[in-house]
Amino acid sequence: MTYAQKAAELLRRNGIDAYIIKQTEKNEFGCARCIKIREKNFGRALEILKNGGVKMSGYTYDI
């Protein structure tokens, strides 16, 4: 299971819709997958991922 899969699963278990998508920006951080969530869930999602021990690399941004 990739970090993206772990992150999406953890977020979904905590009530946040999360989708794995192909990274469209710089591909310098590994497998080129990222998690897409709604902007309103951003802060809560970061907290859940940090507390859940999910390794995060790359950038956090909205489109």
Q: How does the SSE layout of this entry go?
A:
Elements lengths: L2 H11 L5 E4 L10 E4 L5 H10 L12
Antiparallel strand pairs: 1-2
Q: Please estimate the helix content.
A: 25-40%
Largest sheet: 2 strands, antiparallel
Beta-strand fraction estimate: 5-15%
Oligomer designation:
single chain
Which sequence of strands runs across the widest sheet? 1-2
Strands, total number: 2
The number of helices is: 2
- Gap between N and C termini: 26 Å
Supply the helix-strand structural class: alpha+beta
Poorly predicted residue ranges: none
Q: How much is the average pLDDT?
A: 84
Cα Rg: 11 Å
So what's the overall shape?
Answer: globular
Give helix and strand order, one letter per element, not per position. HEEH
Task: Please explain how this structure is put together.
The protein is built from 2 helices and 2 strands. It is globular and about 30 Å long. It has 63 residues and is α+β, with helices and mostly antiparallel strands. Helix content is 33%, strand content 13%. It starts with a helix and ends in a 12-residue tail after the last helix.
How would you describe this structure in keywords?
single chain, 63 residues, alpha+beta, two-stranded antiparallel sheet, 2 strands
Summary of the model, kept short:
This protein is of the alpha+beta class.
